[in-house]
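Give me the 3D structure for Optic atrophy 3-like protein.
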Amino acid sequence: SGIGIKLMAVLLRQISKPIANRLQVVALKSDLFKRICMNLSQKVHSTDVKLRMKLLGEKHSLNSTHSTVRPLNEKKAIENAAYLLSEGFIFSIAGSLILFEAYRTRRKELNRRESVSDDIKALQDEINYIKKKLDEHNVEL
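Predicted structure for Optic atrophy 3-like protein (141 residues):
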C-alpha cells in the first residue's frame, strides 16, 4: 500500500536525525574511531583547503610543497569526522528511500504494462474467435 510506505518513509526520516546524533556521540567517545578518522579528517581538510586556494586563484598547484596547510587540531578533526559520519548516515537513509521509491514505482509501472498487455492479448483472442464464428456462419449461409 502506497500510503503505508510513505508513512514509513516519513518515520525513517524523522528518526534518522536522532540516530545520527547518537552515532556522532558514540563516535566521539570511541578510541578506534579517533584513530581511524584522525588521518582521514586531516586529508579531507588539506584537500579542501588546497582546492579552495586553487579556486581563489592561488598560483601553486594542488601538489605544491610551497602551499602547506596547517593541520586541524585533534579535537576538531575528530568532530569533523563524527559530523561526516552522522551526515553520511542521514544521506544514506534518504538515498535508500529515494531508490526504494524509484524501484517501487518502476515495478508498479511494469505490472501495469503486463496487465495491459494481457488485456490486449485477451481482446485479440476474442476478436479472432468472433471472426472465426462469423466465417463459419457465412459458410452456412
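The CA atoms of residues 1 and 59 lie 58 Å apart. Let me know if you want a second pass.
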